[in-house]
Design a protein that fits this description.
alpha/beta; five-stranded mixed beta sheet; 12 helices; 14 strands; globular; glucose-1-phosphate thymidylyltransferase activity; EC 2.7.7.24
Length: 295
């Protein structure tokens, strides 16, 4: 059974001063805390055990917001990242939690949305080796970039190249087999003093067990690490929800439609939230015609 790792550490310096007293993953993206979005992505993949990695200061806040996940039919645990030293560090911190299980690592400030997203995630969850995603971007030099050969096979992944060999960046979502923590422990700090996730992924590539899935043009990937990006993400989510009347990355909805909670549990979750309109939306999910329409 694959387990999820949600990395919500870091200092959020690119968002100062708004992150000087609270981490960015607790800030709102439209009508929900940012962390709801990556958490729902893991849930949509079929993952029900999640480790949230955060700073010692933020842990009580995350625990207050998320609890142990029981209300959504999942299990949430917490671990501390005292000092951010690269994404691969999360795999080392999570090793006791994983206990030999395969994993899915998602960054707490990455949002995904799209019609085919859930099926894509579930395919990745059922895959072997490692699976990463490619997303066409206008500025690949700002990301980890995937290079392909003439047969569209991945042959190299480079972190923030000055001369990108393709326009496909790797979003902050990675599926690994049970070897990921061991691979991470073999990684040496980069020039910027971090354990780079690219170095873990390249070990899978060298062993010919790396799968690269290109996300469709109908899939949105939003990285909310700057004020402009947060504003754009809020505008995007607001537009989708207002136009469709459906919420994006609502954990109660994902849990209910996935059968993780029943109708009574959904009503219990909705009742305290009725004044905000969020609760009314949750109650609307009980309407059978609505559910048929979703499926």
């Amino acid at each position: 059974m694959r387990k999820g790792i949600l990395l919500a550490g870091g200092s959020g310096t690119r968002l100062y001063p708004i992150t000087q007293v609270v981490c960015k993953q607790l800030l709102p993206i439209y009508d929900k805390p940012m962390i709801y979005y990556p958490l729902c992505t893991l849930m949509q993949a079929g993952i029900t055990e999640v480790l949230v990695i955060c700073t010692p200061t933020d842990r009580p806040l995350f625990e207050s917001l998320l609890g142990n996940g029981h209300q959504w039919g999942i299990k949430i645990e917490f671990a501390i990242q005292a000092k951010p030293e690269g994404l691969a560090q999360a795999l080392i911190i999570a090793e006791p939690f994983l206990n030999g299980s395969p994993s899915a690592l998602i960054l707490g400030d990455n949002l995904f949305y799209g019609h085919l997203l859930q099926s894509t995630l579930q395919l990745a969850n059922n895959s072997t080796g490692a699976t990463v995603f490619g997303y066409h971007v206008a500025n690949p030099q700002s990301y980890g970039v995937i290079e392909f050969d003439d047969n569209n096979n991945a042959i190299a992944i480079t972190e923030k190249p000055t001369a990108p060999k393709s326009s496909y960046a790797m979003p902050g979502l990675y599926f690994f087999d049970s070897n990921a923590s061991n691979y991470a422990k073999q990684v040496k700090p980069s020039e910027r003093g971090e354990l780079e996730i690219v170095d873990v992924i390249n070990q899978y590539l060298a062993n010919k067990i790396l799968n690269v899935t290109l996300l469709s043009r109908g899939t949105a990937w939003l990285d909310t690490g700057t004020p402009d990006a947060m504003a754009e993400a809020t505008q995007y989510i607001a537009a989708i929800e207002k136009r469709q009347g459906l919420k994006v990355s609502c954990p109660e909805e994902v849990a209910y439609l996935s059968g993780l909670i029943d109708q009574k549990q959904l009503v219990d979750l909705a009742t305290p939230l009725l004044k905000s309109g969020y609760g009314e939306y949750l109650l609307s999910l009980i309407n059978k015609n609505f559910l048929n329409e979703i499926h």
